[in-house]
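note to self — DONT lose this again. spent like an hour looking for the file last time. sequence + predicted structure for the chain T wanted, 146 res
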Amino acid sequence: MSPGGPLGPAEPVGPSAATIRTRTLRRASVALGVGALGAVYLWHTNPHQPGQLLLPCPFKWATGLLCPACGGTRMAYDLMHGDVLAAFHDNAVVLALGVPAAGYVLVRWLGAGLRGRQFRPRLTARGNAAVLGVAAVWMVARNLVG
């Protein structure tokens, strides 16, 4: 049957704008709190020094090779301490491509959620291939250079 037919007006599909807004604020608040706790811990824990209590990379642990995200913790530490050159040295691709992309998606998600709309980022097949290709080239290059 078509909407608005003999059974009356169609019911709205999905959550209301107020529900989406509330859910977005709740999720953003939790993420901000967890991120702030992690940042406070990382501020006082220098990942450049051995023996720090930090999560190791499982890929590096299993293979001895650097994954495309290796150096991300050191990069975040260096950025928090204002050392952009050291952060670039830790992981240039994540700093140059990943951080702006994550920021863009976060701003779009938060903006849509506060307007009561859902935002679901989607990558096309070409986008997936580009991301995986950059990650693969970066992983190979950084493991060859050392």
